[in-house]
User: Which sequence fits this backbone?
């Protein structure tokens, strides 16, 4: 039997610095996503107003991938 990982909570706590460094910057999304929309997602999620786990996790993984394999600066 599988189990659900508390990714939404991790984004607010243990992964918060990683989100800040890789998702909440103007270069996040590398021109594919609006930085202000990303920041809105974070504010909603962090405040508990709306669960944006899927969007923020996807953006975090995308940005880490992009920085590693496409040569973008960290």
Assistant:
């Amino acid at each position: 039997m599988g189990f659900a990982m508390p990714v939404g909570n991790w984004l607010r706590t243990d992964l918060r610095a990683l989100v800040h460094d890789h998702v909440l910057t103007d270069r996040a999304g590398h021109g594919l996503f609006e930085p202000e929309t990303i920041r809105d997602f974070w504010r909603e999620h962090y405040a508990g107003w709306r669960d944006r786990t899927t969007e923020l996790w996807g953006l975090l993984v995308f940005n880490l991938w992009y920085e590693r394999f496409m040569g973008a600066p960290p």
In short: The chain has a mean pLDDT of 90. The CA atoms of residues 47 and 74 lie 27 Å apart.
